[in-house]
Design goal:
Blueprint: H1 29-51, H2 54-100
């Protein structure tokens, strides 16, 4: 902590301690190693794709597009199924509370 004017005149000659802060963020070795592995694999795939003949590149691209759309369709079906189960559960809960469960006990 520094002051523009030192309120304690007796200690005016004491040096001020300076704390240096490293501007580089701290990174763990695991994340940098994982990033390097992903980059290495991506480069290997890119090199493999670049060495393919033109007709094979078209085939791999079409196959990758079908694979991506297939995975997307599967995920969307899973989400739709989960939403259907939640809606059905809500309907069952509402029916149970209002129709089956007695609202007032008659004695």
């Amino acid at each position: 902590m520094t002051f523009s004017e030192n309120p304690d005149k007796d200690n005016a000659t004491e040096p001020i301690e300076v704390i240096e802060i490293d501007p580089q963020p701290i990174t763990s070795d695991n994340s940098s190693t994982a990033y390097q592995e992903i980059t290495k694999t991506a480069n290997q795939i890119q090199n493999w794709y670049d060495r393919l003949p033109s007709i094979a590149k078209i085939g791999v691209t079409v196959g990758a597009i079908f694979l991506v759309f297939s995975l997307l369709t599967t995920v969307l079906k899973l989400v739709a199924t989960l939403l259907s189960v939640l809606i059905l559960g809500g309907i069952v809960l509402v029916l149970f509370r209002f129709l089956i469960s007695p609202t007032s006990k008659e004695t």
